[in-house]
Amino acid sequence: MKESPLPTPRRWIRSAATSVVAGLLVTAVGCGGPESCLVSGKVLVDDRPAEGVYVVFHTAGDSTGLPDSGSARSGDDGSFTVVVSTPGESTVTAFWPTVTVKDQDTIEGVDRFGGAYRDPRRPVATVTIHEGENAVPPIKLTSPPRGKSRTSSRR
């Protein structure tokens, strides 16, 4: 039996349903893939590049406070690169764990900032993320005075 050149109602419905599902998947993914919302920047503590600082991106307006967009750890020159899952407004938090190496194991400890920069309701920065590559301004943090925690004041 020869197939008709015009789509049958069943074939049309199947084709339309496939297109709708594909469209929903692209929308749900946000930026559309692992390369689409690439964010790079630098972390400075007391105006110097800082290694090992975690920067966490949160979708602005998200009441859960969960790091739903992405996070990265700064390298020895303070730079970081992260894939952010949701384009748009993001708030940024940070923490800088102490690091101990024992028997070839690296152990991350308490936050050197005393938690002062971890609260997404009081972000260290707010940035707008677009699809494609994004370079954000340096994230400038201040270390606490020796022997004092920064939990009571931020800047």
Automatic annotation (TrEMBL):
Top-level lineage group: Bacteria
Annotated segments matching region Disordered: 129-155
Name the record gives this protein: Carboxypeptidase regulatory-like domain-containing protein
Organism the protein comes from: Paludisphaera borealis
Source organism phylogeny: Bacteria, Pseudomonadati, Planctomycetota, Planctomycetia, Isosphaerales
